[in-house]
Amino acid sequence: MGFAQVGAESGWRTANTKSIQDSAKEAGVTLKFSDAQQKQENQIKAIRSYIQQKVDVIAFSPVVESGWDTVLNEAKQANIPVVLTDRAVDSSDESLYVTFLGSDFVEEGKKAGEWVAKEYTDSSDPVKIAQIEGTTGSAPAIDRAEGFKTALAGDSKFEVVASQTGDFTRAGGKQVMEAMLKSNPDINLVYAHNDDMGLGAIEAMEAAGKVPGQDIKIVTVDAVKDGMTALSEGKINYIVECSPILGPQLMDVAQKVKAGESVPKRILTEETTFTPEQAKEALPNRQY
Ligand code: AHR
């Protein structure tokens, strides 16, 4: 298998890479692995090299949604099946990949929005929200923004006063939060598209003399150990889980595809949500 990874931008990604590498070993799959450092051109180069090497299966997590048709057509011409993991492509030709294995990001955004709606259900005051977006053009950034918006659409007291990308990194989240606190010092809530950006935002809030989780509420997505720790300490108020443990299912799918068996076109990951109390309970057994 040739696997073209997005990069190493977050705790989630590190756990995802480990899951894929460990599962390949366990399944006896020879893995050729590349890290694209969040650049689409690097992923395209890696996929082309896997085509040249005539691997049995190509798997990748597309850094952004658009611009894959040419290289996916090259894989198709070479008769190499492609499995999308974690992130989708926006190609209208579904014959370019065998299956897409990963989360429902729209649903994750909805869960975050529904928690916000519930949290402020007894208040009629305006709620000023700052959104820290994931990588521009990526499926999770697009879908998590959409799901969140849908969940809050019915109530005009919720206003997204600022929305900027932090590129799914802790440093990006911190930088964006610093700027947002200057332009909008009266923000009530931050919705960060992943834990790492939420953790960066916490650093910026603390440096500005604000108490994260109290002065400004925070909801994030992922539920990696560092995020869950901040949740258990009350610095984050709610986390929507996005599971990075895709390796075992990926190896299973790859072996079926190689054996000529059919697989479902969409394989959905099961996920939950966490309150601070639930984070305290889950943390001792959290593996990533
Ligand atoms: O595509 C999944 C997202 O990418 C995760 O939420 C984020 O942490 C990662 O970088």
UniProtKB/TrEMBL annotation:
Instruction: Report which superkingdom the organism of origin falls in.
Output: Bacteria
Keyword terms of this UniProt record? Signal, Sugar transport, Transport
In this chain the Periplasmic binding protein domain maps to 7-261
Give the location in the cell: Cell envelope
Where is the major localization of this protein? other
Pfam families per UniProt: Peripla_BP_4
Q: Which InterPro entries match?
A: Peripla_BP_I, SBP_2_dom
The UniProt entry's sequence similarity note says: Belongs to the bacterial solute-binding protein 2 family.
Indicate what this protein is called per its UniProt record: ABC-type sugar transport system substrate-binding protein
What taxonomic lineage is listed for the species of origin?
A: Bacteria, Bacillati, Actinomycetota, Actinomycetes, Propionibacteriales
